[in-house]
Task: structure prediction
Amino acid sequence: MIYLSGEKAEQFHTDNTAIALGKFDGIHLGHQMLIDGIIKEKQKGRKALIFTFVFSQSEGGFKKQIYTSEEKTYYFAKMGIDMLLEFPFTKEFAAMSPEDFVLHYLVKQLGVRSVYVGSDFHFGKGRSGNIALLKALGEQYHFEVSVFDKKTYDGKVISSTYIRDMIEAQFRMANAMLGNPYFVYGTVVHGNHLGHTIGFPTINQLIPKQKLIPAFGVYASRVLIDGTYYKGISNLGKKPTVKGNHQVGLETYILDFHGDLYDKELQTELLFFIRPEEKFDGIDALKEQIQLDIQCMLEESDSWIKD
Result:
């Protein structure tokens, strides 16, 4: 998959594209309807392209991300997307008229043949462009426009903002709206190797500072290794039982797996919250609690973990 951001995205040219437009922060159930649409367009020989925006801190739009750019690239590639373009949302870009945006970027630069958007999509200066204008421009420049109503969950419209709140407050609900479990994707790094000494070897993944994370604590999880999911128990936090000041990380004990995973890029999905992170008086107390965590995970895992 081609991934470009910043100036490289602005200068990129291609043709015969099916484009999904939006922020795509959480890649939630609503986003997935658009993605499914452009994936189907590949049957017509078109290229499936995600066109999204990056808000800089200086522009006042910076927020921690549900998924980082690296995670999005990995996720979109798995879904079958051909290209991901992240455009910087600068003052100059924001000042562009809706007509100029469509003509310059979608038509001339990306050779658009079809566009997929949500029903509340607005574009151009002051968000002055709407669905009616987009359809009119589609007729003028010969591209199709597909519009999808907002997806709802439990009577509420699914949005990245709502999911952000639920990630921190009601994690299971956040996962339900995401459509797939919240995950961390990153390199397995060396930890302090305490797990090996107590019979629970773990993998460690650092959490990027720009990533939005749920509450510190222990989660039932699963890890994708060479195409196979393995059940696990993950601790998200700063390892309070271990002396020292630690960066926020994800430490996972993987059940029924033996092998060297250091320096591998892995996807670790958090399925549901088990308990808050806590500091134990000693190793024996920690080992006993890990056994209880595993039991809790196994009792409920059948409905959450599928191969």
Remarks:
- The longest strand covers residues 265-276.
